[in-house]
Amino acid sequence: MLGRRKVLGTIAAILLATVSSTAAMAEKVVIGHFGTPIPMQAAAAAGEFEKATGWEIEWRKFGSGAEIIAAMASGDLKISELGSSPLAIGASQGVDYQLFAISNIIGEAESLIGRKDSGVMKVEDLKGKKVGVPLGSTAHYSLMGAIKNAGLAPGDVEVIGMKPDQIVAAWDQGQIDATFIWEPAKGKAMKTGTLIMAANQVAGAPTFDGWVVNTEFAAANQEFMVKFLKALDAANAAYTSNPDAWTVDSAQVKAIAERTGSPAEEVPAALKGYGFPSLKDMASADWLGGGNQSNMLATAKFLMENKRVDAVLDDYSKFVNAEFLAAAMK
């Protein structure tokens, strides 16, 4: 009888362990990112997000906002970075996601660069030239804003849609005269190019990368969302509290270089091209507290003028959710 109880006890223990293991394995999520050299990459390399949330995370790199929108719309992707321009495009198309945090504020990190042998020394020189840029991206939005501010018509410039790696190839082969792009393609172009303008110098066209989440996933996994935000805040604070410590030889910069493909010697300068707001700043009236809703509307209107979206919504409030930020700050 004792032997039978022992066997049954062993079976029960195995079943319990199997159920527990299955439950743990079920807590897995795919998170998209651009491979941008930012503090989050160092934290991801160290497994800090997994430690904070207890979830298994598959980090998936995307080459453009359009790819992320498609993945979010299909349901394959639940959380991702997404630029402010494609954010407005997806929302205008009715993709079921919400902006819940700011990844980075784009400053000098995205720039307009002219080939030294192209004659492009200022924005006005783009007339009749070929410019490579990922269509629908924040860089594309900045480019079109710069063209408009310079008094040029969209048709005056031949804008060619390319992914970052395609831009590098076209640049090396002399197929384009200029590009508006981010790292690591930016650094490669700068070796034989001239810096014309940074994204934060384009009047009336502020850009950023945000974090979006599938609405249903967020509602069902609120604890994960809060823990993710706390890990993100810690990653940003590790840099903003002592940026000078992030040198070429530092472990953080080496980790970022390995994950993103950016040369380690270029990462410290690239980091300075972005702003990394705290959770409090993200929740302010300038951002998710009201600013992002109006920014999305203004961006959508601009994109419709440039035939990137077919229609603009009256209100974009439902595509912004600041509740998780409030919970993470408690």
Q: Do you know the CATH topology of the largest domain?
A: D-Maltodextrin-Binding Protein, domain 2
Unreliable sequence segments: 4-8, 10-26
Topology as a string of helices (H) and strands (E): HEHHEHEHEEEHEHEHEEHHHHEHHH
Given the C-alpha coordinates, what overall shape results?
globular
What structural class do helix, strand and pairing data support? Answer: alpha/beta
- Give the beta-strand count: 11
Helix content: 40-55%
Strand content: 15-25%
The major beta sheet can be summarized as: 6 strands, mixed
Provide a descriptive summary of the structure in words:
With 330 residues, the protein is α/β, with parallel strands linked by helices. It contains 15 helices and 11 strands. The protein folds into 2 domains: 8-106 and 207-328, D-Maltodextrin-Binding Protein, domain 2 (3-Layer(aba) Sandwich); 111-201, 3-Layer(aba) Sandwich (D-Maltodextrin-Binding Protein, domain 2). Helix content is 45%, strand content 18%. The strands form 2 sheets. It has a 6-stranded mixed β-sheet. A 5-stranded mixed β-sheet has the order 7-6-8-5-9, with helices on both faces. The longest helix has 25 residues, at 2-26. The chain is globular and about 55 Å long. It starts with a helix and ends with a helix.
What's this model, at a glance?
Helix content is 45%, strand content 18%.
List the helices and strands and how they pair.
Elements: H1 2-26, E1 28-33, H2 39-45, H3 48-53, E2 56-61, H4 65-74, E3 79-83, H5 84-92, E4 97-106, E5 111-115, E6 130-133, H6 138-149, E7 158-161, H7 164-172, E8 178-181, H8 185-190, E9 193-198, E10 208-214, H9 215-220, H10 222-240, H11 251-260, H12 267-271, E11 274-275, H13 279-282, H14 291-305, H15 323-328
Parallel strand pairs: 1-2, 1-3, 6-7, 6-8
Antiparallel strand pairs: 3-10, 4-10, 4-11, 5-8, 5-9
Helix pairs in contact: 2-10, 2-11, 5-14
